[in-house]
Amino acid sequence: MNNICDLKKRRWLYLALFSLINFFTGALYVWSVFAGPLAERLSALSGSTVTAASLSPVFGLATGITPFLMLAGGFVNDRFGPRLVIGFGGAAIAAGYLTSCLIDSPSLLYVTYGLLVGAGTGLVNGCTINSAVKFFPDRRGFAGGTVTASLGIGAALLPFAAAWLLHSEGIVFAFTAFGTVSGLVIILSALKTEKCPDDFQSRFTGLSNRNSCGNKNHTWIQMIRTPMFYPLFLLFTSSATMGLMLLSNISAIAQTQIGVGVTMAALSVSVISVANTCGRFVSGTLSDRLGRIPTLMLVLTAAVAGLLMLMNAGIGDTVLFFTGIICIGICFGAFIGIYPSLVADEYGPLHNSVNFSVMSFGYSVGGLVGPLLIRWANEGGSFDRAYAVCIAAALAGLTCALIALFLKRRDSARRII
Asked: Are residues 405 and 328 in the same domain?
């Protein structure tokens, strides 16, 4: 049995490793940089016209299967620890990139990039986040926020490395470099990790094994049978729908509504990405002090304020526009940063990898519904209807948060009685 004092020291190393690993999985979101050169290469090899737009379903497949692999990896992680799951995920990511630069058919890209890179990313993301939360029962928000923020940092910085490699060496070398470096870093880092003992929380000084649901660590089946699950799931879904509606169209909004050029539109994407990353870290740490649900309610209120700013922004109102998207980006990042620790608080840390993966299907629903809603909302040529839908989603989220807060306080009162 591991000595508790040694584990308290080593958990900081594990947190650093989980963050480093998650940083490199941010390469999945470099797709928009790779898409153009990759389409040109496949056009030359296949003899048919391939465009970046025609390859966009490949990225949709990669991101769409992520929650399913998070769930599958969660079962293994809860039983055997992160080493196997992360190692296998890193190998899948490396294989996906390395084979993507060898194929000559666009259809094969669905397998090499869509399935392999997407599956590897899902396995790694779910495992690193939930393992970090387990090792920090005293700072779950901080741990979850730090690891999820590292993914955002990777997604923000790696495009610059990709663009430089594409310009200097070409798409084949860029894919080879990303596959080799990502695979090696992820696999070697995984070898230094270990499974968090199931009784770590109970052995942790000053903490008992009790959580908000009592001594029981809920399985995912038990979790979905609790009244608390439904408002939490709907809360996650509403925030994801709102965030992904705007993130998928922020450049178009900047150019069409505010009248900025291509450079400023690109800057708006970077700004909301940075706000998203900061929101993950800051809100996770803040939730350790204020509570998970109150913090989520606070950032949802900020998001409504940001949406009202966007609704009132017109041609040339760049300050109002950027202030609004910062509020929305922080809110969206906050949900990603807080939910791993929130699920662990409510249902116990033992099965958190699987439980959080089940809860993450709310994010998948938002990913499917959000872009469709904004397409419908923008049919009239204005984004006002989209903002109204987003505000409605935020208000629905606030309602769900109030219900969850009521259920939580009711259960606490019953245990006291």
From this structure: yes
